[in-house]
Structure formats: structure tokens, C-alpha cells
Amino acid sequence: MQIRGMFITFEGPDGAGKTTQIGLLSQYLSRRGMAVVTTREPGGTPLGDDIRRILLDVKYKGMDPRAETLLYLAARAQHAATVIRPALAEGRIILSDRFADSTLAYQGAARALAAAEVAAANEFATAGLIPDLTILLDGDPAELQTRRQRRGAGDRIEAEAIAFHRRVRTGFLQLAGKEPDRFRIINALDSVETINSQIVCYIDEFLHRREKQ
Ligand SMILES: Nc1ncnc2c1ncn2[C@@H]1O[C@H](COP(=O)(O)OP(=O)(O)OP(=O)(O)O)[C@@H](O)[C@H]1O
Ligand SMILES: [Mg+2]
Questions:
Q1: Could you tell which of 147, 186, 187 is best to mutate to test the pocket of ligand 1, judged by most ligand atoms within 8 Å of the CB?
Q2: Residues in domain Thymidylate kinase-like (predicted)?
Q3: Number of other CB atoms surrounding residue 27 within 10 Å
Q4: What are the φ/ψ torsions at residue 186 (nearest 5 degrees)?
Q5: Residues 35-41: what's their mean pLDDT?
Q6: What pLDDT is recorded for position 171?
């Protein structure tokens, strides 16, 4: 039998709980004997981590949106080619903290770059790689901001005005509306445990459905 990997992405606003939930899901899947790879964007590779530092540095406040997009995409191209695709080929389950949908929501919807152009650029960067499943942690930006502020000084993107974060949220919800088979929307304001069990249900359902194919 051919081994089949699975590419799962976690999306949502800053502070929505992506990193927390990836950690829990990774433990759950590992306990079940699955080969899991956790990774993040921007980052996931040495080149990507260097680009991440530039992207989040407050000294680049006001960075041109197209320059910003291309930096994210450069990091993503390296990530897709050298981490995600090889892991998928080995039949692993990849859990990525953000991926292409973040660029559509942040640079497309929130910075008002043309959606079709950003989508085409994503496709170029990833050579057409699309997640099997995307968990969208959705919540009111004002409430999530309070959660983030408890954590101390934010990065360049977190420092954007609340209106920006509202556009990000709307952008994500629109993407989910367009691809209901790939997206699962979860209320980010629920408890860590509730969210974890919902995610586990979605993953089990997906794996079960795929076994039958
Ligand atoms: N469901 C939850 N309820 C309350 N607090 C939570 C919940 N999930 C995560 N947190 C807390 O909120 C903060 C942000 O969580 P986390 O770092 O997982 O979010 P994130 O989406 O990865 O954020 P970022 O985009 O900034 O990396 C952390 O302090 C975390 O402990
Ligand atoms: Mg995080």
C-alpha cells in the first residue's frame, strides 16, 4: 500500500491559539503512532527563519505591501520545496502554523492587494501545493488582542490597528466560505480543551473518509 501523507494547516488571527493547538494535536497523533512534522510560516527553514525576522521587525513599519508579500512567498517557496513536499512524500502528517491562506487574508484582504494576483503568486511559490485540511481558528480581533497583550510587546504585524485585524478575519472567513470542503472553522474563544477535541474530531473524520476512498 502506498503511504499517503497529509498536509494540515492552521490559520487564523494572531493570538487565536494556533501554536497551542498544533502542540496538542501533534501529541495526540504521535501517541497514535503517526509520523508528525510540525512547522510554521514564515519560517520552517533556515532561510525562512531569516526572512521571518525581517518580516516581524518593527523597524520595517510601513513596508511596501508587495515587498512584504514577496518576502512571505520566498519563505514559503523554500518551505514547500524543502520541508513540506519531502515530508508528504514520506507519508508524514505535516501540521503547519500558517500557510498560503494567511497571505490571502493579510496581504490580499487586509492590505488590499488584488486577490487573484496574490492567489497566482501563492501558486507560483508553492508550485501548486494545497493543504488537505485547513483549521481556521476564528474569533473577534478585539478579544484576541487582549489575550495577545498579556504576552507582552507585539511584532510588526500584531502592532497593526484593530481595523486591519478585522479585515484579516473577514478575509479568512471568505476563503473558508469559498472552500467549505477544505476548511473547518472553530471558535477561537472556546477553551483550549474544547477546541482540541473539535480538531481531533475533524482529523479523525478526515482520516476515516480517506481510508474508505
Ligand atoms: N482557547 C484559549 N483560551 C484562552 N487562552 C488561550 C487559548 N488558546 C491559546 N491561549 C493563550 O493565548 C495566547 C496565544 O496563543 P497561541 O500562541 O497558541 O496563539 P497563536 O495563534 O499561535 O498566536 P500567534 O499568531 O501570535 O503565533 C497564549 O498565551 C495562549 O496560552
Ligand atoms: Mg503562534
A1: 147
A2: 10-199
A3: 12
A4: -125, 140
A5: 97
A6: 98
Of 17-26, 28-37, 126-135, 141-150, least confident by mean pLDDT is: 141-150
Task: Look at residue 1 and tell me if it is in a domain.
Answer: no
Separation between Cα atoms, residue 88 and residue 62, nearest integer Å: 37
Q: Which residues surround ligand 2, an ion (CB under 5 A)?
A: 18-19
> In the prediction, which pLDDT does 1 show?
45
Asked if 18 contacts 12 with a C-beta cutoff of 8 angstroms, the reply is yes
Average pLDDT value for the chain: 94
Indicate whether 179 belongs to any domain: yes
Indicate whether residue 139 lines ligand 1 (CB < 6 A). no
| Cβ within 8 Å of residue 17, ≥6 positions away | 137, 188, 192, 195
The CATH number of the domain where 109 resides is what?
3.40.50.300
Residue 19 lies in a domain: yes
Q: How many domains does the chain have?
A: 1
Is residue 22 within 8 Å of residue 95, measured between CB atoms?
yes
Does 15 reside within a domain? yes
Cα 136 from Cα 132, distance rounded (Å):
13
| Distance (Å) from CA 92 to ligand 1 centroid | 26
For residue range 143-196, what is the model confidence (pLDDT) as tens digits? 998 877 776 667 888 778 899 999 999 999 999 999 999 999 999 999 999 999
Whose CA is closest to atom 18 on ligand 1? Answer: 17
State the pLDDT at residue 110.
Answer: 96
